[in-house]
Amino acid sequence: MPGLPTDDDDIALFSTERLDLRPHRPSDVPFMMQLNSDPEVVRYTGDAAFASDDEARAVVARLARQFEDYRMGRLVVSDRETGEKLGWCGLRWHDDHGVADLGYRFFRKHWGRGYATEAAAACIRYAAEELQLSRLVAHAMLENVASVRVLEKLGFRRTGPTVFKGLAAEGFELLLRA
């Protein structure tokens, strides 16, 4: 199995028409600090801004390890043409529930451009075709209308109220196999 990604690993795991998606690597710490520092970006996530570079570094390392362990994770999403990092999107495996959840987070200046839908659709294809998963779950705060719309556009169905990171949320499920 390959080691954790290094700063020399700039190859996309997969691409879409406009986007490249790749595992996190150590040089992504400033990007993650900046992304999580916008209160509007983290408003509906249950996360706070990172308290320090060390906290962000630990999260980036955990994300990279998860990809190594499970061949899935939250992936850095970049513009294919410019290389600009737009946010992240991807799957996270939950051993306790035996299921992967889909999540995404983008810089506010990139909201409303279809990046979340495009990146998430690519992650769903990866989950079905490469990972052979039978279902995915997701969570969204009902006030986060844009995120709910993305999930519904992708074919997720509501499974009812739930608590996610201590906040009231709506659960979603997407069956990939009958």
The gist of it:
The protein is of the alpha+beta class and 178 residues long.
Could you describe the 3D structure shown?
By secondary structure, this protein is of the alpha+beta class. Strands 1-2-3-4-5-6-8-7 form an eight-stranded mixed β-sheet, with helices on both faces. Helix 4 (115-129) links the parallel strand 5 (99-106) and strand 6 (135-140). It has helices spanning 29-36, 39-42, 53-70, 115-129, 145-153; strands at 14-15, 19-23, 74-79, 85-94, 99-106, 135-140, 157-164, 167-175. The protein has a domain at 14-132: Aminopeptidase, CATH 3.40.630. It starts with 13 loop residues before the first strand and ends with a strand. The protein is globular and about 40 Å long.
Strand arrangement, largest sheet? 1-2-3-4-5-6-8-7
**Radius of gyration computed on alpha carbons:** 15 Å
- What's the CATH class of the domain at 14-132, please? Alpha Beta
Put simply, the count of helices is 5
Uncertain stretches? 1-6
CATH topology title of the domain at 14-132 = Aminopeptidase
Strand fraction equals: 25-35%
Order of SSEs: EEHHHEEEHEHEE
Helix content: 25-40%
Largest sheet: 8 strands, mixed
Structural class call reads alpha+beta
Distance between the termini: 31 Å
How confident is the prediction overall: mean pLDDT? 91
Number of strands: 8
3D shape: globular
What's the CATH architecture of the domain at 14-132? 3-Layer(aba) Sandwich
Q: CATH homologous superfamily of the domain at 14-132?
A: Gcn5-related N-acetyltransferase (GNAT)
